[in-house]
Amino acid sequence: xxxxxxxxxxxxxxxxxxxxxxxxxxxxxxxxxxxxxxxxxxxxxxxxxxxxxxxxxxxxxxxxxxxxxxxxxxxxxxxxxxxxxxxxxxxxxxxxxxxxxxxxxxxxxxxxxxxxxxxxxxxxxxxxxxxxxxxxxxxxxxxxxxxxxxxxxxxxxxxxxxxxxxxxxxxxxxxxxxxxxxxxxxxxxxxxxxxxxxxxxxxxx
Length: 205
Description:
This protein is an alpha/beta fold. It has a single domain, classed as TIM Barrel (Alpha-Beta Barrel), CATH 3.20.20.70. The protein is built from six helices and ten strands.
């Protein structure tokens, strides 16, 4: 598991970020979706995110120009699309110089067969729910041993210390690029539990 990267998503607090940055976290995710309890603009002081390297801006069916505006204003080069964005939408964003992580909601094998987006850099596989992420639930990860999609992916959806051992059962680790941590590593929505993050890295390293 040492080669698998970690993304911590849904951070809203500067001090919390400062406590986390001492760990080998490859990506920090900031959510720009108004209906999310981790919506970054709920915090009036977000200028700290401008200088964070390898950060990811998370959007849900956002207006194209607004994605570009936020990406430029806060120095994002990577965006995560967590809604029903089309391949042409992704292509336009890539044409603007952004890297794309595209989320896909998964319940069974048929959901993998519906994935046909070409203009993305990474897939992200999350549990299918009525929410756009952050549900705390996970799909059957054994399905990942049965897919033929040859693109690196982030695994998301309900990852916790309790079920972490199940990730090791995924045989297709060649394409498992990163773990996306959110609700199971929080004290409350938007504030990560540093002790849980510490325990995770003690397991991984």
